[in-house]
Specification:
The structure holds 2 protein chains of 2 kinds.
Chain A: E1 3-7, E2 10-14, E3 19-26, E4 33-38, E5 45-50, E6 56-59, E7 62-66, E8 70-75, E9 84-92, E10 99-102, E11 106-111
Parallel strand pairs in A: 2-11
Antiparallel strand pairs in A: 1-3, 3-8, 4-5, 4-9, 6-7, 7-8, 9-10, 9-11
Chain B: E1 4-7, E2 10-13, E3 19-25, E4 32-38, E5 45-51, E6 57-58, E7 67-73, E8 76-81, E9 90-97, E10 104-106, E11 110-114
The chains are: A mainly beta, B mainly beta.
Chain lengths: ~110, ~120
């Protein structure tokens, strides 16, 4: 069964303290790994899509990397406004509609 | 660009009534839209896949007669929760897949409370 596991479940950082979030997946034939940011009471905001091992993408203080079994979301010198839940998802190609399977998310809190 | 709207943003209804939630892609076309449900501190769970001009595909355990989905155009899908019960109270989020880029963009969600 296809699965997506995120760790840690929650992470508390001091402003400026860099860290990484992990997303491990088991899916036959990866067709895309996605990172989203979700603020409380809002829908997920698209961050990155990664398709192949070795691929990296950056946006401001965030950098996403992908291996054959997992992805990391690196946060460099985070600020309080980076506090949110970060969701990882993979495409499940069943039925031809490319459903997204989400992990449980990592709740990040950045304190000044 | 790539904006998805949902209406209403929140709704309170009485048990036994029906509620309709709209999902619109504002600046792109989407032949496929997805409906998710999210309970507090939990991740998104896919309920159904909505396809323009055809019947929706429901995930296992989701009652198709209770959660009616209509995808009438390339920019609009609706979810109707029929005969709502308190256990249907949740955060409902839609997403739309851009017909050109294939990226999925999410709406802001609709908070449903059934009293």
């Amino acid at each position: 069964e296809d699965q997506v596991t995120q760790s840690p479940e929650a992470l508390r950082l001091q402003e400026g303290e860099s860290s990484s979030l992990n997303c491990s997946y088991t899916v036959s034939g990866l067709r895309g790994l996605f990172w989203y940011r979700q603020d409380p009471g809002k829908g997920p905001e698209f961050l990155f899509t990664l398709y192949s091992a070795g691929e990296e993408k950056e946006k401001e203080r965030l950098k996403a990397t992908l291996t054959k079994k997992e992805s990391f979301l690196h946060i460099t010198a985070p600020k309080p406004e980076d506090s949110a839940t970060y969701l990882c998802a993979v495409h499940e190609p069943s039925g031809g509609y490319n459903k997204l399977i989400f992990g449980a998310g990592t709740r990040l809190a950045v304190h000044p | 660009g790539a904006v998805v709207s949902q209406h209403p943003s929140w709704v309170i209804c009485k048990s036994g009534t029906s509620v309709k939630i709209e999902c619109r892609s504002l600046d792109f076309q989407a032949t496929t839209m997805f409906w998710y449900r999210q309970f507090p501190k939990q991740s998104l769970m896919l309920m159904a896949t909505s396809n323009e001009g055809s019947k929706a595909t429901y995930e296992q355990g989701v009652e198709k007669d209770k959660f009616l989905i209509n995808h009438a155009s390339l920019t609009l899908s609706t979810l109707t929760v029929t005969s709502a019960h308190p256990e249907d109270s949740s955060f409902y989020i839609c997403s739309a897949r851009d017909i050109v880029s294939y990226e999925q963009y999410f709406g802001p969600g609709t908070r449903l409370t059934v009293t």
